[in-house]
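Milestone M4 deliverable, item 7.
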Amino acid sequence: MAIRESSAIWKGNLTEGNGSMRLGSGAYEGAFSRASRFENGPGTNPEELIGAAHAGCFSMYLSLILSNAGHVPTRIDTTAKVHLGEGPKITLIELSTVGEVPGIDEKTFIEFAEQAKKGCPVSQALAAVDMNLTASLAQRELSL
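Output delivered:
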């Protein structure tokens, strides 16, 4: 199986220091600081990157299980909100997904989304964190 690598450098103490994170592929490199992590300062933070990884993994896994069941999605749009609480500790991840899946009803889509929440590799890795899922089908425009 694939091995993925990322790296981070931190310089200085927590309050006045700063750092950068880089994906091994080179597709992303960004600054982070205490302000970007615990306040609303410029830059990224580990929780934001965890959210992106979780949203991406969930979307791909949901697409896989839908396709395997004969419901090939046109689009899966997922957002992950990662809550950082006291401690600091990740206390909650809110997944919200909207799918465009021809020939499927919303109840069935939600059932597949729940399976994806349990089965995607990032969800499994983060299983110690509470996760909420909201899933719906995109509203289709009717042409007259």
